[in-house]
């Protein structure tokens, strides 16, 4: 297995690479997903060191929690820059390479928030709705043009990482760990499919919610406590993450974000942790 990890926090990426691999099979490279030039350099360096990639995981995302009316324009712009433009920059860089090689698999990490509006994360949910809809459109374009490249959209519920610190439990939908998300991705790499819900019951919840009238959705959210999972999160447990997620303006190389992107050559079939919910 050969994997390249890209992150704006290079020290963290190096530590993760050292934990996961040896003999140069897992490498760490600098990456600012909001910068197209940085993304191009990352992919070029990864392929130079590891060979042609056939799996690319768009894993960028930050999730500040709070009511929309309290959100600053800069805070919203930062989420859009990382959560949306980061994904676009990754896909725009890797898809021409996949197309030229007549194969590859693009994996976009979205969220259950990309299917259901989640109180307390309005802008975040909006960015994840974008990732889901955009991924569907890109896959349709590839199929229409006869390009044999697969696209998968991963929609985890609450994942036990720093990003979801302090979140309340949702009835009927257990929280999951990064390994559960990784298992879902691996299964989609082995047998390609677009939708990957983690846990799987999340897909059932999304389907039920989609056919309910507005009042029914609200009652379901209240019954499962999904309406307060993030809105009433324990803020005392989120201080470090919120500070790191907001510590610099968008499009700055010094900005701190969660793990940005993972790429894997042909042998690689096991991604690292997904930091999002």
From TrEMBL:
Extent of Low complexity compositional bias: 255-266
GO CC, one annotated term: membrane
Single GO MF annotation: oxidoreductase activity
Region (Disordered): 239-277
Keyword set includes Aminoacyl-tRNA synthetase: no
Pfam families with a match to the protein in the record: adh_short (PF00106)
Keyword Oxidoreductase attached: yes
Entry keywords, A to Z: Oxidoreductase
CDD domains: SDR_c
Composition bias type Basic and acidic residues, residue spans: 267-277
Domain of life: Bacteria
SUPFAM superfamilies registered for this protein in UniProt: NAD(P)-binding Rossmann-fold domains
Similarity-based family: Belongs to the short-chain dehydrogenases/reductases (SDR) family.
PANTHER family: DEHYDROGENASE/REDUCTASE SDR FAMILY MEMBER 7B (PTHR44196), DEHYDROGENASE_REDUCTASE SDR FAMILY MEMBER 7B (PTHR44196:SF1)
The name this protein goes by in its record: Short chain dehydrogenase
Organism: Patulibacter medicamentivorans
Lineage: Bacteria, Bacillati, Actinomycetota, Thermoleophilia, Solirubrobacterales
């Amino acid at each position: 297995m050969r994997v390249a990890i890209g992150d704006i926090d290079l020290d963290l990426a190096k530590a993760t690479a050292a934990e996961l691999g040896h003999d140069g099979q897992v490498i760490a490279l600098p990456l600012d997903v909001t910068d197209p030039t940085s993304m191009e350099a990352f992919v070029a360096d990864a392929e130079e060191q590891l060979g042609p990639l056939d799996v690319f995981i768009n894993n960028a995302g930050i999730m500040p929690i709070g009511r929309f009316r309290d959100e600053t324009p800069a805070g919203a712009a930062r989420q859009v820059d990382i959560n949306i433009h980061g994904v676009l920059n990754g896909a725009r860089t890797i898809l021409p390479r996949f197309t030229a090689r007549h194969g590859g698999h693009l994996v976009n990490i979205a969220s259950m928030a990309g299917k259901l509006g989640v109180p307390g994360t309005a802008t975040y949910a909006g960015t994840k709705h974008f990732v889901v809809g955009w991924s569907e459109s890109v896959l349709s374009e590839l199929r229409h043009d006869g390009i044999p490249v697969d696209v998968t959209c991963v929609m985890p519920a609450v994942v036990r990482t720093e990003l979801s610190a302090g979140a309340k439990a949702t009835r009927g939908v257990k929280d999951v760990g990064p390994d559960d998300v990784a298992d879902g991705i691996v299964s989609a790499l082995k047998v390609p499919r677009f939708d990957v819900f983690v846990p799987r019951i999340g897909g059932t919840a999304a389907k039920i919610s989609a056919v309910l009238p507005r009042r029914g959705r609200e009652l379901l959210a209240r019954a499962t406590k999904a309406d307060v999972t993030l809105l009433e999160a324990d803020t005392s447990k989120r201080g470090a993450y919120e500070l790191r997620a907001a510590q610099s303006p968008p499009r700055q190389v010094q900005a701190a974000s969660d793990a940005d992107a993972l790429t894997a050559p042909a042998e690689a079939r096991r991604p690292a942790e997904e930091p999002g919910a």
